[in-house]
Amino acid sequence: MAPPSGHSLLLTSALGIFILHCFTRGQKNSTLIFTKENIIRNCSCSADVQDCDYSLANLMCSCKTVLPFAIEQTSYDGHLTIWFTDTSALGLLLNFTLVRDLKLSLCGTNTLPTEYLAICGLKRLRINAEARDPSLEQSLLIYNNGESEPREKIMLLHKGWQTCMYISFLDMALFNRKSSLKAYSIENVASIANTFPYFSYFETIPILSNKSYVVTFIY
Prior knowledge:
Elements: H1 6-26, E1 30-36, E2 39-45, H2 54-60, E3 62-66, E4 75-84, H3 90-94, E5 97-106, E6 116-120, E7 124-129, E8 138-141, H4 151-154, E9 155-158, E10 161-164, E11 166-171, E12 183-189, H5 192-195, E13 213-218
Parallel strand pairs: 1-4, 4-5, 5-6, 5-7, 11-13
Antiparallel strand pairs: 1-2, 2-3, 6-11, 7-8, 9-10, 12-13
């Protein structure tokens, strides 16, 4: 059998490069944020990284350091993973932030207080306590109507800031338990402050004109 010609080898190599380029373009990076020793790192990763492996994340992902006072409200259409050791920075990162697909990984053994995060537009939640039981990852589907909700249905611009129509309240104390994730939703909530008076720090949420909230509690 005759060896392949130089022209055939060149064509094969070019085709391989083209396929790899198309595959790479088709991949959508996910966002990884981790907090460690009062430092916040925001990373863009093309592949999954083992939970709480900070060295591997810095090696495999494109990361930058973010100062706490420089954090701005943003939104995440793709996958967002956050590694944390306590709840101090989670409020800055997640409260009233649009996150459709969220994974929270506890990388320490601290007992977490009963604190609530308010997350906007959440469709899927995954949690993992890597330091306690790395095999015990749980997943919860918040809502699934077969189609992605239009962004304009989830977020409304209200007096210069974004107000979410779908709010999930996440009890961080759930990381202290081994019970299964649970959730229940309440529709047609006109005023969160009036309906849930114990959430006093959410009194700044406006009453929407001709609109109502869908509130989900995750515990």
